[in-house]
Amino acid sequence: MSHSHQLAPIIRRFIAFILDFALLGAVICAFLFVYMGKPEIEPNADEGKISIADKYQFFTYAEAIAEDSDKIGWIKRFASNYPLGALMIFLIPFLYWSIFEGMWGATIGKLIIGIRVRNKAGMKISWGTSFTRAFVKLLSVGIFFLGCLIALFDKKSQALHDKIANTLVVKR
Prior knowledge:
The protein has helices spanning 10-35, 52-55, 57-67, 71-81, 83-104, 108-113, 127-142, 146-149, 160-165; strands at residues 115-119, 167-171.
């Protein structure tokens, strides 16, 4: 790595991740909101009024998963009833990370914070590297962020997806 590419501080990576997470959450929620809308609307028992919860099943599942102790059961029912919705929860982040980092070397959060992903030679990453990194990152995030937490203890602040894809996150 050349001297012109300084490693990004872990706090910058964290802030970029939070920005990306918020953006992805908004996109996924918007998709699910539209995807899970009922084709026919019937009035509920409350004075015959139609509420937004009657129109969109999204709220039914979101509330139940948040409040019910049987979270796994609700998640399984969601995946069974809305397989495309369940797939998109994983596909949207994968495509976002791989396309943005493959094309521009950074996600929107990283661009805002002023960091980018590079290979160990300091060059832009390839599409193959981008897809590998995004896939491993999806697994890392899905398993209680364990792969991401590795960066806290690594001298180069590399998370599991960085180590496997042979990438570094550097200041722009």
